[in-house]
Structures
1.
Amino acid sequence: MAIYRGTNYVLPNEPCMGLYELNFKAPDQKSRRRYQILVVLRDDTMAEHRIDMGLSKNFKKDQIRIPGGIRNPDGRFEILHTVSELQSMANDIRAKAAFDKRELAKVNKIKI
């Protein structure tokens, strides 16, 4: 993951390169927390904003990564979604029932 400049706000209609919900150690190193990370295109450069969503153990879903755009071979960015669109997608993902990953991989459940 690249290093971007930080920002303390994002706007709902800002072009968003990606939304990530990832678990990291809290700054006090005493707990693990889930952060929503938004990478927006601002002033022709990427900026990152983090939202603390709470303790990671409160989230039963896997971490989320939703791309919002692409980088063309010429180095220019093509943004396909806004902050509010990606946040809506993340909310939908969190609201759906979890599925068994073994079923997706077509692995039989082992009975013990």
2.
Amino acid sequence: MSHFYASIPTSARKTVPTARGHKTTGVTVNAASWAGAIETRLWVDADGVDLYEVVQVPHHGAGVERVLAFGIVGA
């Protein structure tokens, strides 16, 4: 059974694409422009706590890498 769920509710598509992640794999979502990208990661740590990290990352050579947020999901 999946532990994480990702979706793209607003896009040019007519359907909402989704992805699932397990405790062992986590899930990563990228949203990009020509100026860079934002990556959101969800995973479970060794203590069983759901964590998140939002990072600005380069995309096709543009942008920077910088952590924007990090924490516990639901806290």
3.
Amino acid sequence: MERCRKAIHLRTGDRATDEAITSWLERHGVESVGCADPFEACCLALRQPELAPDLILIGVDWLAPDELGVHEYLHQTWPAAAVVLYSSGPAGAILAGGPATIVHRSAESLQRMLAGPPEALLTALRDAARPAADSAAWRPQPTLPPDTASSAGDPADAAPGAAVACGAGAPAAAVPRPAPDGEQTQAAPRTPLAQTILTREELAALLADDDG
């Protein structure tokens, strides 16, 4: 089982839940860095990218709607980390996951998480990613008959209307739906992160003002 050594915990959930998660990390010997709000978490990512956590935990109960993008910012800084979004209240209904993200929307789901070791989260995400990779690796590759291979790249040989047909059958964009508690989800394309929260340059400017 993959060892979980470091975690970043954005303590913006229900206070009792935040405390339970902090105790859980300590009990399993995980070095944890706590952040009180999204700005502090973004500053940490900007100033100490070398932290390289294995796990990022974010409570959403006390996040404003325009602060929910913080998990994307942290995931872009540390793409190898597993991300857990959690809520024990109504705020969990609006949670949407993404790559390497597990969502817990209820107290019962969180209790199941806390009953196991942090390493179980890393294993679950790795195992979930493996079937997709294996499926792609074993997908049969089409081959052309020898007598047609030489003309495969010639646009003049394409059937009339082929280009139009490709676009006509394209499905409409799917509307993302919340996944069941404790499951990892793949998010639909989102608004660029620079348009949802501060960019690195803006954070750097704010930090420079604070230092001055």
4.
Amino acid sequence: MTTTNLPQPIATESRICFGLVWLATEADAEAWDQHVRATGQTYNGGLFDGMPCGRDSGFDRRDEAGNVIAYAVSVA
């Protein structure tokens, strides 16, 4: 799967050692996770240098009630 075939993120963010994309559904996030892992993307530097990127629920965005409103995937 190429990035042009992946679902469109609803938000993105660049950080020093990795980036994040947020997707509207968990299925979309899983598609990104499969692509990121298949292409061997990893964190670049810092404490987690070399750790595989992929689906990371720790970065999910939630509403006031705690419901997930955007599903996060870390990317290189």
